[in-house]
Design a protein that fits this description.
By secondary structure, this protein is mainly alpha-helical. The chain has 2 domains: 7-55, no CATH class; 65-105. Helix content is 51%, strand content 8%. It has a two-stranded parallel sheet with strand order 1-2. Helix 2 (39-48) links the parallel strand 1 (29-32) and strand 2 (52-55). Helix 1 packs across helix 2 (39-48). The protein is globular. It starts with 6 loop residues before the first helix and ends with a helix.
Amino acid sequence: MTANPGGDWVRQMARNLTACGGFLYDTSHLLFDRDTKFLPLRTYLNGMTDTDVVLLPPRSPNLNAHLERYMRSMKSECLDRRIFFGRRSLERALGRFIAHYHREAA
């Protein structure tokens, strides 16, 4: 984590995410909005990986409504109500929230 992410930091995070075993390893498509803060990541993915960058249309705030609602629920129901003592406790809480969310939605 960093308080002031720059282009070099974003490129390093992109390398970490797309390396073997990374979160985006073997990802074929990745959706992006048109915010300029993602520009170094989009540039890296276009030039260095097989991942296709798909830009969302401009001025389409409701295009990702399901994801926006999921993220809002995760934040308000899980992350804002706990104090985490390290990565393991955060991952455990998120895993339990995801299981609960999908069980309730089914």
